[in-house]
Design goal:
Largest sheet: 2 strands, antiparallel
Strand content: 5-15%
Strand order of the largest sheet: 1-2
Number of strands: 2
Oligomer: single chain
Structural class: mainly alpha
Order of helices and strands: HHHHHEEHHH
Number of helices: 8
Length: 184
């Protein structure tokens, strides 16, 4: 992905230096046909080189992204992608290591910080301790779950589909990433 973006940026920079306005996604087939007709011949050759690289790298990236989906043996719940699921499984190194939800939350850094003084206390936002890859993967999954539920209005009706994955953990991760807790 980084190499494709690099090729795309190099082509865009070549055109911008010459004062040519470059549309977003200029290297994709639909945009390239229109954009190519507006370019001078010498610029077509330069941008054509970067476009070829971007298209080739995009195809290669697509193949690499589809590979994990083929190797997955389970049906994934709503809002969870194959790559995120595999990343989380590898970072947790098996669920049998954890005996309860608190241990998983602690390992992933999704425990709320606690502020106590003089017998009074409150819970803060999630802390930054724990496995950062698992932490950010869970936050990404929470947002995807939240957006998918918002689009399809499924969260209230098929809660059983999601509950096995720890809806509370996902919800806390999503709310904490925006610095506000869930409304009680």
């Amino acid at each position: 992905m980084r190499d494709r973006r690099r090729a795309e940026a190099r082509g865009r920079a070549d055109a911008v230096v010459q004062g040519i306005e470059v549309p977003v996604g200029w290297w994709r087939e639909a945009r390239w046909q229109e954009f190519n007709s507006q370019l001078p011949e010498w610029m077509r050759l330069q941008l054509g080189h970067w476009r070829e690289q971007a298209v080739a790298l995009d195809c290669e990236e697509g193949k690499l992204r589809r590979e994990p989906e083929k190797s997955l043996r389970i049906e994934l719940p709503l809002g969870i992608g194959a790559l995120s699921w595999i990343t989380l499984e590898r970072e947790l190194r098996g669920r049998d290591r954890f005996h309860n939800r608190r241990q998983i939350a602690s390992y992933t850094g999704l425990c709320p910080g606690i502020h106590n003084s003089n017998g009074r206390g409150r819970e803060g936002s999630i802390n930054r301790c724990g496995n950062s890859v698992a932490h950010y993967t869970l936050i990404e999954m929470a947002w995807r779950l939240f957006l998918a539920a918002k689009r399809t209005a499924v969260l209230g009706s098929s809660r059983s589909e999601i509950s096995g994955l720890g809806i509370r953990l996902f919800w806390w991760a999503a709310c904490s990433s925006t610095q506000r807790g869930p409304q009680r």
